[in-house]
C-alpha cells in the first residue's frame, strides 16, 4: 500500500493528511514510479492554502526523484529501472507519496553523477535558476543582480551560477546567520533587510546606478523597494510571492522609475518544449555533477511530518533545500 499526503480543504499546514492509497497499473503514456526522495517547495503552500485553486481532495507537491517500475502503453522515453526526476505543475501534482502514476513525458533521466536526494532538492529550483539566468536577460560579465531570499533553495543556486557568469550578486536575507550562508555561496554583498533599507544600500553598493536585474521571490513586501533598486531600463523579475501577491499598480510607474521592464515568468513555460527542457536540465546537471554548483540539503523530513515541514517553511526557519526522504 502506497502512502500519500493529501488535503481535503484549503488552509494552514494542519489540513495535510497522511493516508493510504492504491496506485494501480499505468495507463497509456504513464509510468509507475517508486519514489526515493521528494522536494519541498514554497509553491506547495500555494496549492495548500488555495492561492493556486485545484479540485479537492487532492495530492500535493510537484517534484521528486525515483525509479521507474512499470510502463504504460506507448511509453518509449524511459525504461523499467531508469533513475529519473521530475518537476512541473498540474501534470506532476501529487509528489508527496511513496509510489505513483505519472506521465512519462514529465520525467527527466538522471545521470549517474546526481543522487536521488540531490535531484529532489534541485530539479524545480535548479531549472528555475537555469531559466532565470539563461533565458530572461542577456547577462554580461560585470552585470549586477539583486537576489531576494538569497539563502533559500533557489537563491543559493542562482548565486553560485551567477558567479560562474561573472555577475555581481547582491543578496538579501532576514538574519545574520542566513547572511553567512549567502556569502559562502557566491553573494558578493549581503543586505539584512531587517536592519537596512534595501534600495538605499543597493544604490550605495552600485555607486548610485542600481542593478541590472532584480530576482524577487518575496512579492508584496519587497516590490516597491525592488523597483527602486533598479538602474534605468533595468529588469524586474517577479518570480514568487512569499509575502503575498503584489497589489495592482499603474504601469506608468515603470516609466517614472526609469523605463523599467517587468516580467512574471513561470517555470512551466520554459520546460514545456522537450528540447528546451533537456537543454536547461543538461546545463544544470553538468554544473552540479562537476561540483561547480553545490546543492545544500539542510532539512530532511519524513512524509508523515509534512505538517511540520510546511510550518518550518512558512516561518522562514529553513535555508537551502528541504526534502522528504522515503
UniProtKB/TrEMBL annotation:
Residues of the Enoyl reductase (ER) domain: 11-324
Organism field: Pseudomonas plecoglossicida
Keyword hit for Metal-binding: no
Keyword field: NADP, Oxidoreductase
Classification via Pfam families: ADH_N, ADH_zinc_N
Name assigned to this protein: NADPH:quinone reductase
Entry's family note: Belongs to the zinc-containing alcohol dehydrogenase family. Quinone oxidoreductase subfamily.
Origin organism lineage: Bacteria, Pseudomonadati, Pseudomonadota, Gammaproteobacteria, Pseudomonadales
GO cellular component: cytosol
GO function terms (MF aspect): mRNA 3'-UTR AU-rich region binding; NADPH binding; quinone reductase (NADPH) activity
EC number(s) stated in the UniProt entry for this protein: 1.6.5.5
Catalytic reaction(s) noted: 2 a quinone + NADPH + H(+) = 2 a 1,4-benzosemiquinone + NADP(+)
Amino acid at each position: 500500500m502506497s502512502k500519500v499526503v493529501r488535503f481535503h480543504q484549503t488552509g494552514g499546514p494542519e489540513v495535510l493528511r497522511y493516508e493510504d492509497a492504491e496506485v494501480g497499473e499505468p495507463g497509456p503514456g504513464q509510468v509507475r514510479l517508486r519514489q526515493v526522495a521528494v522536494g519541498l517547495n514554497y509553491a506547495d503552500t500555494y496549492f495548500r492554502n488555495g492561492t493556486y485553486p485545484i479540485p479537492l481532495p487532492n495530492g500535493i507537491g510537484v517534484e521528486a526523484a525515483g525509479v521507474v517500475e512499470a510502463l504504460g502503453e506507448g511509453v518509449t522515453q524511459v525504461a523499467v529501472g531508469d533513475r529519473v526526476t521530475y518537476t512541473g505543475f498540474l501534470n506532476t501534482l501529487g509528489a508527496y507519496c511513496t509510489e505513483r502514476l505519472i506521465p512519462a513525458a514529465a520525467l527527466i533521466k538522471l545521470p549517474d553523477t546526481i543522487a536521488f536526494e540531490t535531484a529532489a532538492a534541485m530539479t524545480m529550483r535548479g531549472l528555475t535558476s537555469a531559466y532565470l539566468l539563461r533565458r530572461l536577460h542577456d547577462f554580461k560579465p560585470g552585470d549586477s543582480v539583486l537576489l531576494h531570499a538569497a539563502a533559500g533553495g533557489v537563491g543559493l543556486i542562482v548565486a553560485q551560477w551567477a558567479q560562474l557568469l561573472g555577475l555581481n550578486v547582491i543578496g538579501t536575507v532576514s538574519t545574520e546567520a542566513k547572511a553567512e550562508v549567502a556569502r559562502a555561496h557566491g553573494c558578493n554583498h549581503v543586505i539584512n533587510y531587517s536592519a537596512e533599507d534595501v534600495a538605499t544600500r543597493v544604490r550605495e553598493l552600485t555607486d548610485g546606478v542600481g542593478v541590472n536585474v532584480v530576482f524577487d521571490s518575496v512579492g508584496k513586501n519587497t516590490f516597491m523597494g525592488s523597483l527602486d533598486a533598479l538602474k534605468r531600463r533595468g529588469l524586474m523579475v517577479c518570480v514568487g510571492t512569499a509575502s503575498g501577491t503584489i497589489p495592482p499598480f499603474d504601469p506608468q510607474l515603470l516609466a517614472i522609475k526609469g523605463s523599467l521592464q517587468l516580467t512574471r515568468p513561470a517555470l512551466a513555460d520554459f520546460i514545456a518544449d522537450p528540447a528546451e527542457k533537456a537543454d536547461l536540465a543538461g546545463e544544470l546537471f553538468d554544473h552540479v555533477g562537476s561540483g561547480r554548483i553545490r546543492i545544500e540539503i539542510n532539512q530532511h523530513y519524513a512524509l508523515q511530518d509534512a505538517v511540520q515541514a510546511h510550518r518550518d517553511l512558512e516561518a522562514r526557519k529553513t535555508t537551502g533545500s528541504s526534502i522528504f526522504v522515503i
